[in-house]
Amino acid sequence: MKIYTRTGDTGGTALFGGGRVGKDHPRVEAYGDVDELNASLGMARCIEVMPRIDEVLVPIQRDLFAIGALLATPDHDKMRDHLAKARIDEERIAELERAIDQCDQELEPLRSFIIPGGTPKAAALHVARTVCRRAERRVVHLAQEIELPALVITYLNRLSDLLFTLARVANLRAGAGEVTW
């Protein structure tokens, strides 16, 4: 199978389960941003390997594949299948929260804004956080047009908090200080 199909040469793309939309459709914007987030997490994992941080990111990347598939699927029954496959549920949200809480035990309490940066690993996690926030905004916009499971927005919101916390932990573990604003 060739990677190129030529079916998108006129600006359209196929959705899972049938149908076509323009590549600038809000659905495509949303799953495109989730895909970009997934790629940015892959890059963050490759920079300054930190096993305890990287082990948290791999399941998240799997979740994001399933969320992207859900966003690319207009069929509500298949949407639920993707959500179930991803295990995006209240327990998964609680797992993200526990990861944040575990990280917070290592960190000094926040007293001011943190300027993104520090080590390359932390900077990459900060970039991923901002991509996550954009993906969240796109999904919120899409949810105003089509019915989406609310847990997708909750997941992305919690994930951005986790990425911020992981960036702080990456700096701490590498011995880099934080620059405050």
Explain what this protein looks like in three dimensions.
- The chain is mostly helical and 181 residues long.
- The chain has helices spanning 26-46, 51-71, 76-86, 90-106, 120-143, 150-173, and strands spanning 12-14, 20-22, 114-115, 179-180.
- It has one domain (22-180): Cobalamin adenosyltransferase-like (Hypothetical Protein Ta1238, Chain: A, Up-down Bundle).
- Strand 1 and strand 2 form a beta hairpin.
- Helix 1 (26-46) packs antiparallel against helix 2, helix 1 runs antiparallel to helix 5 and helix 4 (90-106) runs parallel beside helix 6.
- The longest helix is centred in the last third of the chain and has 24 residues, at 120-143.
- The mean pLDDT is 90.
Indicate the radius of gyration in whole angstroms.
17 Å
What sort of overall outline do the alpha carbons produce when their principal axes are compared? elongated
Total helical elements: 6
Q: Order of strands across the biggest sheet?
A: 1-2
Strand content: 5-15%
Under CATH, the homologous superfamily reads Cobalamin adenosyltransferase-like
| Helix fraction by DSSP (H/I, runs of at least 4) | 55-70%
Low-confidence stretches: none
User: Which structural class do you get from the secondary structure elements?
Assistant: mainly alpha
Query: What is the CATH T-level topology?
Result: Hypothetical Protein Ta1238, Chain: A
Give the CA-CA distance, first to last residue: 52 Å
The largest sheet, given as strand count, sense and whether it forms a barrel, is: 2 strands, antiparallel
Q: What is the averaged pLDDT score?
A: 90
| Elements, N to C (H/E) | EEHHHHEHHE
Q: Give the name of the CATH architecture.
A: Up-down Bundle
Organism: Gemmatimonas aurantiaca
Main location: cytoplasm
Pfam families: Cob_adeno_trans
Pathway: Cofactor biosynthesis; adenosylcobalamin biosynthesis; adenosylcobalamin from cob(II)yrinate a,c-diamide: step 2/7
